[in-house]
Design goal:
By secondary structure, the chain is mainly α. It contains 8 helices and 2 strands. It has one domain: Rhomboid-like (Rhomboid-like fold, Up-down Bundle). The protein has a two-stranded antiparallel ribbon with strand order 1-2. The two termini are 31 Å apart.
């Protein structure tokens, strides 16, 4: 964790969650570029859709689409959740593991969108947010146990997404949320089983 001091005896700032802060910062930069280019940067880099496998940008978009957002409100909503959940998860699982969670979530949601919704451009960090939500609900999981909080989060959040997907026209984003949550759940149980992060002991 890096610290920065403002002035000789001034306030010290700590870069306490490098992956989370860097992720949000890149999202903000992508949104500025989107504004300056009239949406061209989002179409070229920061959204994913079916395209030729011979095009190198196809593979970049599989990852970069999580940085793009449709507008500032879309970005702010996702950034709020990222900044709340990210630091706690980085402290438990480490920066490398959280970077891996983001990468896997981006690739999985991007591939699913290309295969199932080839004519739709997908962008935004919502899949990553839902991965973090589900991951945060199992941070206290012990080997062989399933936390009740995890079951409640699945019931409330994923259940809501399924309901909205069936009753609203925006099935694409709901599907992405569910896929992101599934990735976060699987990776959370895998990392907890391997003993990544803080261990718990019975008294």
């Amino acid at each position: 964790m890096k610290t920065f001091q403002i002035g000789k005896k001034g306030l010290r700032l700590s870069w306490n969650a490098p992956v989370t802060l860097s992720f949000v910062a890149v999202c903000a930069i992508a949104q500025v570029l989107n504004f300056l280019t009239g949406g061209a940067s989002n179409r070229a880099l920061f959204s994913v859709y079916a395209s030729s496998l011979l095009d190198p940008l196809t593979y970049l978009r599989l990852v970069l689409h999580v940085f793009g957002h449709s507008g500032w409100e879309h970005l702010m909503n996702n950034a709020m959740y990222l900044l709340i959940l990210g630091p706690m998860l980085e402290e438990k699982y480490g920066t490398k593991n959280m970077a891996l969670v983001i990468l896997i979530t981006a690739v999985v949601t991007g591939l699913l969108n290309m295969i199932l919704f080839p004519d739709i451009r997908l962008l935004g960090a919502s899949g990553v947010v839902f991965a973090m939500i589900l991951l945060s609900s199992i941070t206290s999981a012990e080997d062989g146990s399933i936390p009740v909080t995890f079951l409640l989060v699945v019931l409330l959040y994923i259940g809501q997404q399924i309901f909205e997907g069936l009753t609203m026209d925006d099935q694409i984003s709901q599907f992405t949320h569910i896929a992101g949550g599934a990735v976060g759940s699987v990776l959370g149980f895998v990392m907890n089983r391997k003993g990544t992060g803080t261990k718990t002991h019975s008294l």
